[in-house]
Design a protein that fits this description.
- This protein folds into 2 domains: 191 residues, 3-Layer(aba) Sandwich (Rossmann fold), CATH 3.40.50.620; 115 residues, Rossmann fold, CATH 3.40.50.1220.
- Helix 5 links the parallel strand 13 and strand 14.
- The N and C termini lie far apart (64 Å).
- The protein has 9 helices and 17 strands.
- The strands form 4 sheets. A 7-stranded parallel sheet has the order 7-11-6-1-4-5-12, with helices on both faces.
- It is 27% helix and 25% strand.
- Bound molecules: flavin-adenine dinucleotide.
- Flavin-adenine dinucleotide (FAD) binds next to helix 6, helix 7, strand 16 and helix 9.
Length: 346
């Protein structure tokens, strides 16, 4: 399927409903799908439209059905043997065919590695635009235009972007940013099966094997507590101490980009605009100054604790609890205090 010509004279009234492009990996629904449904429902309610979840795959009907517990009005299951494994061509062609046939008004895609790959391709194939990496969405109830907000100019300002003339309005939304839809015991809604016109020759990349990484998996998105280290650690050894505090608290380890760029820790730990967006109950920032691009990824944490030797560090403007001091003294004292369950005394 080729890039569609952008048609400036479409009839906006022909387009309906809010679609969420669900994601599955190895036949398991990715959590971002439930976050997108939560956000899709909020938008749909404001304009009195329905929420439809779209999932592509093969032989995953039982897994797809689970989404009916999250309050969608309908699921469209794009089913084809060639969609068993993800391919940009296969998923983009199949989803574009569906969009061109059904004409959704809004299409939300997760800004995951898969969504960032396939989302722009779908937009090009259906002849619309796409606002990538949105951190918040709202809707103008008068005309149904979505207000898509994302960091711009290196994260130094937030831009709100609209798509006034084309449909669907498409956004990719970062995982971990939106509230998940709530689970209801009783499923509701219907499932429609869509069989796309897809041939082997349409898929230019062939999957010849899968290599499972032996890296320790890091789940920052679901972590209740995160202990993050920054340039203030002064070296990779600092992360051993961060890990110790994290183990003591049952937390995950995060990092600033400066720490990642210095090669002290793997990039899967990076929190921020170009890393993972997190919203834990407790975020402990150790030796992190609080640059806007870092705050963009953790500012929604319930409680922020900052440890920094500079009393003027910007992180102290956003934290709930601030400790001014040398992290190499503060963190061992915290670990000891937690081990002994004693009061802190710095
Ligand atoms: C387009 C773009 C995207 C970006 N994306 C990200 C992103 O996703 N995530 C991210 O983190 N950054 C990102 N950045 C980089 C960001 O601008 C900052 O450079 C980075 O966050 C700084 O990391 P830091 O706070 O660890 O280092 P610094 O800003 O150097 O701060 C180190 C802090 O440690 C403190 N310190 C030093 N020694 C000690 C000690 N012994 N005890 C206690 N405190 C101490 C210092 O007072 C200082 O406040 C991005 C930048 C751009 C332009």
């Amino acid at each position: 399927m080729k890039r569609a010509k952008v048609n400036q004279n479409i009839n906006l009234a022909d387009y309906h409903d809010v679609w969420v492009i669900g994601e599955q990996r190895e036949g398991k629904i990715h959590p971002v799908t439930v976050e997108l449904i939560g956000e899709g429902k909020k938008l749909a309610e404001k304009i009195g439209k329905k929420v439809v979840a779209v999932v592509a795959g093969s032989e995953i009907e039982e897994e797809v059905k689970k989404l009916l517990h999250y309050g969608v009005d309908k699921i469209i299951y794009i089913q084809h043997p060639l969609l068993k494994d993800f391919s940009t061509d296969g998923y983009a062609i199949a989803t574009s065919q569906l969009i061109l046939e059904k004409k959704p008004e809004i299409v939300l895609v997760g800004a995951t590695s898969i969504g960032r790959d396939v989302g722009p391709k779908i937009a090009a194939q259906v002849g619309t635009g796409l606002v990538a990496d949105c951190t918040s969405l709202d809707i103008d109830p008068e005309d149904g235009k979505i207000l898509q907000t994302r960091p711009a100019f290196g994260g130094n300002l937030m831009a709100t972007i609209i798509c006034p003339k084309n449909r669907p309005q498409m956004s990719t939304v970062r995982p971990g940013v939106m509230q998940k839809a709530t689970y209801a015991e009783n499923p509701k809604g219907e499932i429609e099966i869509f069989v796309p016109k897809l041939e082997e020759k349409d898929i230019r990349v062939k999957l010849i094997g899968k290599i499972v990484t032996d890296k320790k998996s890091v789940n920052l998105i679901d972590a209740k507590i995160i202990v993050s280290g920054g340039r203030g650690l002064k070296g990779a050894e600092g992360f051993e101490m961060i890990q110790k505090l994290a183990d003591t608290l049952g937390a995950e380890v995060g990092a600033s980009r400066a720490a990642v760029d210095s090669g002290w820790i793997d990039s899967i730990h990076q929190v921020g605009q170009t890393g993972t967006t997190v919203r834990p109950d407790v975020y402990i920032a150790c030796g992190i100054s609080g640059a806007i691009q870092h705050l963009a990824g953790m500012g929604e944490s319930k409680y922020i604790v900052a440890i920094n030797k500079d009393p003027n560090a910007p992180i102290f403007k956003v934290c709930n609890y601030g400790i001014v001091g040398d992290l190499y003294k503060v963190i061992p004292a915290m670990i000891e205090a937690i081990d002994k369950k004693t009061e802190f005394d710095f």
